[in-house]
Specification:
Elements: H1 18-24, H2 65-78, E1 82-86, H3 89-97, E2 105-109, H4 114-124, E3 130-134, H5 139-145, E4 150-156, H6 168-178, E5 181-185, H7 190-193, E6 203-207, E7 221-225, H8 228-241, H9 247-258, H10 260-280, E8 284-288, H11 298-304, E9 311-316, H12 319-328, E10 333-334, E11 344-346, H13 358-364, E12 370-374, H14 380-391
The structure holds pyridoxal-5'-phosphate.
């Protein structure tokens, strides 16, 4: 029962543009029935017709068609070789650091996501790996931090929550010279705005919970790799750790990806308007947003992305104002996470960056006056009106 949707017409989609690829995915529709919405293969195991004859699917922990459709779609959108979908961004990152051996050293962005810091500090330091946190925007500092045993660079750009920018092309060249892998956490911009593999990254990771899914209703993680030996590592990790994304959750992320381009455009547009409004507000001391021409990373951002995304951080005039804002927002929700349709406001000091060491937090500027906001896709006039009343 092979029809037009069958596996081997993969190449028919090769020349499509990004927005079309996001809609049509890898297989797109079901090869068996032609169902336009890719089926949720809600099964733990797969029947063998006879001894030695398998459909290629044996057990969902190893491989499931719905998860595979998501994985292939992400490999296409990031321009990588193979993708892997995990039960969370943390689970994806656990597998990334699973590449390390005793004695290996890693360089990471200094305001890396708190959970990533925790993986390094609490788990992989125990197995004898070491970690140095460095401002990835300062290439001299990056070079200085390299050791003979440096095996990996782990970069977020823009960073969370300080919106610092790293030059992926230049860091990739430095990593290659050091014989190290470059991993980029592309959660904030997604492949719609930034494609790290084309700029030299070896592995791209995502919290799929954020923009990829986009509706604040799933926790998921993605890794896309560029080499067969890396693919084998991730495949093995998923098989042994049992951390693959469930079929229904895979389907929700696939469904989210269909509208990723539309949502990212709206997040981007809304965030610019809010950033400009915040910058003029008398209670706002500083706005961190890579789309401002006077942002230190503006030129690098322009050279490697096609948009600035939907994230803004800002510092208020006092702790009181910050707490009033968090308590008084009405439409905007005071909640952890980001990248969904709803605007969310977060207090990094006690939420996302609670695990970051106080001295690093202080140095970065994550203090009691500091707020992060994920701009949703609501009417921007309502977002601004809500901020205005909550800051009054
Ligand atoms: C949320 C997040 C993670 C962790 O992902 P989960 O899906 O919450 O496990 C990793 N990196 C960044 C940049 C994030 O925002």
């Amino acid at each position: 029962m092979i029809n037009d949707c069958y596996y081997d017409d993969f190449d028919k989609k090769e020349n499509l543009h990004f927005d079309s690829k996001a809609v049509h995915g890898a297989l797109g529709c079901d090869p068996m029935t032609g169902a336009v919405s890719f089926p949720i293969f809600q099964t733990a195991t797969f029947r063998h017709r006879e001894f030695g004859v398998s459909t290629g699917y044996n057990y969902t922990r190893l491989l499931n068609p719905t998860r595979q459709e998501l994985e292939r779609t992400m490999a296409i959108l990031e321009g990588g070789l193979e993708g892997f979908a995990f039960s969370s961004g943390q689970a994806a990152n656990m597998c990334v650091f699973g590449l390390l051996k005793k004695g290996d050293h890693v360089l990471l962005s200094d305001d890396i996501y708190g959970g990533t810091f925790r993986i390094c500090d609490e788990i992989f330091s125990q197995v004898g790996a070491s970690f140095t946190y460095v401002d990835m925007g300062d290439l001299a500092a990056v070079k200085e931090a390299i050791r003979p045993e440096t095996r990996m660079f782990f970069v977020e750009t823009p960073t969370n929550p300080m919106m610092k920018v790293a030059d992926i092309r230049k860091i990739s060249a430095i990593a290659k010279e050091a014989g190290a892998l470059l991993v980029v956490d592309n959660t904030f911009l997604t492949p719609y705005f930034q494609q790290p593999i084309a700029l030299g990254a070896d592995i791209v990771v995502h919290s799929g919970t954020k923009y990829l899914c986009g509706h604040n209703d799933v926790v998921a993680g993605i890794a896309v790799v560029t080499a067969p030996e890396l693919a084998a590592h991730f495949q093995g990790e998923m098989k042994s750790r049992g951390n693959g994304l469930a079929p229904f959750d895979s389907w929700l992320v696939l469904r989210g990806i269909k509208t990723l381009p539309l949502r990212m455009q709206k997040h981007n547009e809304n965030a610019r308007a809010v950033a400009e409004w915040l910058r003029r507000h008398p209670r706002v001391k500083k706005v961190y947003y890579a789309g401002f021409e006077d942002h230190a990373g503006y030129d690098v951002t322009k050279s490697q992305t096609t948009g600035f995304g939907g994230m803004i951080s800002f510092e208020l005039d006092s702790e009181e104002t910050a707490k009033r804002l968090l308590s008084n927002v009405k439409m905007i929700l005071f909640a952890e996470s980001l990248g969904g349709t709803e605007s969310l406001v977060t207090y990094p000091l006690t939420q996302t960056h609670e695990s970051t060491p106080p001295d690093i937090r202080e140095k970065l500027g994550i203090n009691e006056r500091f707020i992060r906001i994920s701009i949703g896709i609501e009417d921007v006039r309502d977002i601004i009106a809500d901020l205005e009343q909550a800051l009054a």
